[in-house]
Amino acid sequence: MKVLYKNQLIDREQAQVIDIEDRGYQFGDGVYEVIRVYNGHTFTLKEHLTRLFESAKKIKLTIPYKKKEITALVFQLIQANQLTEGTVYLQITRGNQSPRQHDFHLSQQSESILTGSTNPKAVNRAQLQQGVKATLIPDTRWLHCDIKSLNLLVNLLANAQAHEQGATEGIFHRDEIVTEGSHSNVFIVKNKQVITHPANHLILNGITRQVILAQCAATGIQLEEREFTRKELLEADEVFFTSTSTEGQGITEIDGQIIGDGQVGPLTKQIQQLVFQEINKQCGKIYV
């Protein structure tokens, strides 16, 4: 298996060249992206790289490569590992700093480190049809959730709690306001209108979320970006969540309360089909 290190592909066994004093390890000082691959083609790669550079800018991290260079490296990585369906993980940290210290201005001579790897994991298509359970979890994260940061400990704990409770996803809320999932964006449907939290500092503006907003606008599906409450969530006709790794999945039960009729709802299914069509358009036929 090949992995990406800086601007070269190396064998996975050689990846020990990454320094133990990399600020990504010691401070979580870096950003990342996960890109879905179908039929050996990337889905929404341009949008992912745009967000990668935006996240890096927000933490004052310089990426020493142009987007077209990283694009070429991603394609090389996919080809080298013969990835047909799965994901590409890209990470960039502020680089090595010795001795360890908080002030990153003192490490301006260090080089930002780009790494990447592939994972041949397909989407769980059974869950797309059947729907999943979720649980509500207080959102105790920082106030820069719009940055796709390496700092994911609260997200990991929330996801672990969800699985411990027999759920697939944890849904964050700040007091009464629902924000997003532990690794997803959350949507509700009420009276045939789709509602999702606005893209501000309290959520990550997911790429699949962006695809859905564009598809709803193009097809006339009513969609509103606004805050909604836990009460609205539990009383919704339909609930679904979206991410690169899961596409769009219906939520049929939250903390033991059945959503709607307990099945993946009709508008959720319609939106799933719109996402499938965009995947087929960009990557070749995957979904019928």
UniProtKB/TrEMBL annotation:
One of its GO terms (cellular component) is cytosol. Keywords: Aminotransferase, Pyridoxal phosphate, Transferase. Pfam families: Aminotran_4 (PF01063). Its EC number is 2.6.1.21. This is D-alanine aminotransferase. Its cofactor is pyridoxal 5'-phosphate. Gene3D superfamilies: 3.30.470.10, D-amino Acid Aminotransferase, subunit A, domain 2. Belongs to the class-IV pyridoxal-phosphate-dependent aminotransferase family.
